[in-house]
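quick one: phosphoenolpyruvate bound model?
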Amino acid sequence: MKSLIAANWKMNMDIKEAVSFIKDFKERVKDIKDVEMVICPPFTLLNEIKGLIKNTNIKLGGQNMHFEDSGAFTGEVSGLMLKDVGCEYVILGHSERRQIFNETDELINKKIKAALQHKLNPILCIGETLDQRDNNKTIKIIENQLMNCLNNISEDEMKHVVVAYEPIWAIGTGKTATPSQAEDVHKFIRELLTNIYNENIAENTRIIYGGSMKPENAKELLSMPNINGGLVGGASLDAKSFGEICGMS
Ligand code: PEP
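yep, here:
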C-alpha cells in the first residue's frame, strides 16, 4: 500500500507564503513516487495551490467541510466546492474541530458520507486526551469514535477512507507518542476494522499517525508495521522539514 503524508496547515499562511512554500517543496519532492503527498491549506489558498501543483506528484485536500452541498450556511464550505477547486482529500473530525467547534461523531459521520458522495477521500481523525489515556480509556475512546464515525459506511466506501490516529496530548505540544505507543493503537484500529468490515479492508486501509511528527522522529514512527503515513501540523509549514518527512516514508 502507498503511504500517505498529509500537511495540515491549519489557519496559517498567506498567498505569498504559500506560493513560496510550494515552489520550494515541489522541487524537493519531485522524485518521490511511492508516497502520496497531500497539502491541506486554508480554503483561501486552495485555488492558488491547485495551479502550482498541476502536473506534479502533490495532491490537494481541505481541512473541513459541511455535509450539505449548498445553501444558507454562512461561513461554511461544501464537499462539492472542495471537489470543484481540485481537492482529492478532506480532513474530518480533527480534534481541534471536535474540541473548539464541538463537532460530534454523528456530525463527522454525516460529513464522511457527504465527502464520499463527492469522491473525496476522507482523512478521519480519532484520538484520546491525556486524561483519557491516564485513566486507561484510550482503547474504549478509539473504539467509540471509529464505530460512530464509520456508522453505515459500506465496505466499498471504506476503500477511500484514511484513518488518522492523533493522540490529542501529542498535537502541537512537542510531545510525540513513542513508536510503540502509536503502533499499539494502530494495531488495535486495524483489528477493529477487521471486526467491523473484514481482513481485506483492514489490511488495505491506511492508518496514519499525527502528533508532533517532525524529521527527527518521523523515520522511526513510519517504520512501524501498522503506521502507513503521517498527518503533520507544525512541521508541515516548513518546506524543508515537510519534504524530509515525505522522503522518509
Ligand atoms: C495536527 O494538527 O494534525 C497535527 C498533527 O499537528 P502537529 O504536527 O503540530 O502536532
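DSSP finds twelve helices and eight strands in the chain.
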